């Protein structure tokens, strides 16, 4: 069944071009040196596929999940165009059959959920990682509200260091940074932005 959230995203992804561009998120690109040389990666809420395709180009076997059918079709098209394999699944992350201890790398870029869905999603991510697996997450902080450069309109959907520390208390924290970044990703994200980014590893 299609939810109003899926319809919202499908409508946005139905516009010509790629809303956040076809290049990967800059934080994800900057963390590429930490990627395993081979292995399985999961990118949740991958939208039109720019990040999943980049992970696949990095030599990983990539699964992406997104609830917006139009986004998933565009992700598959981008993978074909770039000549990489991408397992792009169209599913609600809360109905998806999450594999356990299956991924060497899990990525969440600009997925903004209210509590308690946020906590549940983050528990799923931790369980889906293999021991020793790496988590990479970037999201907007509360200071982003009102800037008009991207992100959710509602403060309750933004993430803080306290929230992420609590959600991922079971992981070994490598970096948890709050700051300002110039973000230029298609027409969807453009300008100075208040972001938070987490790099963490599941104990081996
Ligand atoms: C801001 S976009 C980010 C897309 C992508 N991560 C990127 O950075 O290009 C948020 C995405 O989350 C997806 N999403 C939100 N809630 C979801 C859910 N419960 N299940 C699957 N996808 C979801 C939307 O469909 C949308 O594609």
Write the layout of secondary structure elements.
Blueprint: H1 4-13, H2 26-30, E1 40-44, H3 50-57, E2 61-66, H4 69-82, E3 87-90, E4 103-109, H5 117-128, E5 129-140, H6 161-167, E6 172-185, E7 189-201
Parallel strand pairs: 1-2, 1-4, 2-3, 4-5
Antiparallel strand pairs: 5-7, 6-7
The chain binds S-adenosylmethionine.
S-adenosylmethionine (SAM) binds next to helix 1, helix 3 and strand 2.
Summarize it:
This protein is of the alpha/beta class and 204 residues long.
Describe the model.
- 27% of the residues lie in helices and 30% in strands.
- It has a single domain (4-201), classed as Vaccinia Virus protein VP39 (Rossmann fold).
- The N and C termini lie far apart (38 Å).
- The protein is an alpha/beta fold and 204 residues long.
- It has a 7-stranded mixed beta sheet with strand order 3-2-1-4-5-7-6.
- The structure holds S-adenosylmethionine (SAM).
- Residues 5, 9, 20, 25, 45-47, 50-51, 65-68, 71, 92-94, 109-111 line the site of S-adenosylmethionine (SAM).
Number of strands: 7
Strand content: 25-35%
Bound molecules: S-adenosylmethionine
**Count of distinct structural domains:** 1
SS field, number of helical segments: 6
Biggest sheet, spatial arrangement of strands? 3-2-1-4-5-7-6
User: Percent range for helical residues?
Assistant: 25-40%
CATH superfamily: Vaccinia Virus protein VP39
User: Helix and strand succession?
Assistant: HHEHEHEEHEHEE
Biggest sheet overview: 7 strands, mixed
